[in-house]
From TrEMBL:
Pathway annotation from the record: Cofactor biosynthesis; NAD(+) biosynthesis; quinolinate from L-kynurenine: step 2/3; Amino-acid degradation; L-kynurenine degradation; L-alanine and anthranilate from L-kynurenine: step 1/1
Pfam families xref list: KYNU_C (PF22580)
SUPFAM superfamilies registered for this protein in UniProt: PLP-dependent transferases
Native source species: Flavobacterium psychrolimnae
Role played: Catalyzes the cleavage of L-kynurenine (L-Kyn) and L-3-hydroxykynurenine (L-3OHKyn) into anthranilic acid (AA) and 3-hydroxyanthranilic acid (3-OHAA), respectively.
A GO term from the CC aspect: cytoplasm
Name this protein carries in UniProt: Kynureninase
Record has Hydrolase as a keyword: yes
Keyword annotations from UniProtKB, A to Z: Hydrolase, Pyridine nucleotide biosynthesis, Pyridoxal phosphate
Family: Belongs to the kynureninase family.
Known partners and oligomeric status: Homodimer.
PANTHER family, per the entry: KYNURENINASE
Required co-factors: pyridoxal 5'-phosphate
BP terms from Gene Ontology: anthranilate metabolic process; L-kynurenine catabolic process; L-tryptophan catabolic process to kynurenine; NAD+ biosynthetic process; quinolinate biosynthetic process
Amino acid sequence: MTFENTLEFAKKLDSQDQLHKYQDEFIFPQVNGKKVIYFTGNSLGLQPKRTKAYVDEVMNDWANLAVEGHFYSEKPWWDYHERFANPLSKIVGALPSEVTVMNTLTVNLHLLMVSFYRPTKTRYKIICEEKAFPSDQYMFQSQVHFHSRSIGIKPEDAIVEIKRREGEHNIRLEDVLAKIEEVGNELALVLIGGVNYYTGQVFDMKTITAAGHKAGAYVGWDLAHAAGNVKLELHDWNVDFAAWCSYKYMNSGPGNASGCFIHEKHHNNAELPRFAGWWGHNKERRFKMEPTFDPIHGADGWQISNLPVLSLAPYLASVDMFDEIGMDALLQKRDTITSYLEFILHEIDKEVASSFEIITPSNPSERASQLSVLLHGEGRSLFDYLMKNGVITDWREPNVIRLAPVPLYTSYEDMYEFGQILKAGILDKANL
């Protein structure tokens, strides 16, 4: 497609967009009396309007039924989470039995590492990406410390970061594969973010998973920035485990429940350790209060406590919307609108003295709904200008803004208007 940096062209794209109507499904903050251009769905998605009805339903059942709501509400609380199995399995490419919801992301990664990080004195290393999200880094360090007394390992020896090459912003696939081969028989676990939060790079999860397995390691993925954003085939890729948060691209609300994937090949493995709790116990016998843990078959068997239904309600509202639309339609718009934003940035770059360097890969197969932009010659004042003029974006030191055009609620007209505001912010500064 040949793009044009005009309002008329942007409106034409919106008129052809089958998802354009979903903008009206979301509540936008307002700045200066106008709805914002929202680029931070990679941090916290907007609130769907339908969310309130899902939450109100739980609140009303609680008021009218109290404890009986567990069994007699329209969506009984004791199996509320089971409503996620089918729609989530489509989003992440899994069998319904392989997905569940519980806890929050880093908590779930810790719990999954109980099962899948089982270091020995000879096989104990973890491969992750350089500049992983800090929570993952803290998790790795604390997991290694947890095992250090029994097998004498230290984080600086056990944690192997795959580095970017000098002068490059993204990690090359060949370097990931080479590092896996180099670590070899010492490798216990590969655990990488499916989409790097800083650059927006999408990793080749299928190829990396196969390489990790060839080396004899377990392979898991932190899908915080991938779930609801990229094409996932976790079952077919033979991924051992994965977890994701629900409040970014899936719009479930701040700090909300996390999703988990455990491949079916592990469901019958009685030797695989896990931390147990009564909500993961045999569902039909759960209320018999038996003393010995008998896990539910499937990912639900990794649950520990009864689930926070009030938190799950907003997530279910969003998951139902995803099921209504389908990932294929989302991904098609994602690619087009991200490319249009890239075009707009290049066009504005020609009209101002500053220069923009997009550090997210230019290959659509290696990126998703995010462009991370180095603003050469610009500083925090430009970010502040954007925010004051209704563009909600994200600043990362030293001078990177992250722009996430979420296909559910951003429009092509938003992309055009952003370009005009960006240009005005740079020119206003130059004219001072």
